[in-house]
Amino acid sequence: MKLYMGIADAWDLGFRSFLVFIFAGLLWLKFIDPIISCAIGFPIPVLVGLFFFYRGWLNAKKDWIKENLEWEDLEEQWEVN
Fold first, then answer.
1. Is 42 helix (H, G, I), strand (E, B) or coil?
2. For the whole model, what pTM was predicted?
């Protein structure tokens, strides 16, 4: 698997995903738990946190690809000149 971000960026994204997990869990407990049983109350916030991490990883991959394409264009321009 290719790493598209540094350790610090991955750590930051993981921590923000954990905060999203906590926030989704608190929202679940406050608003949905009185209506629906808590049996599925844990997997839903986990999925929300994982989705947040996955979306951030994909954005980092897109940025990495875009940066590589820009470098290739610059190298081609330097070779022509």
1. coil
2. 0.81
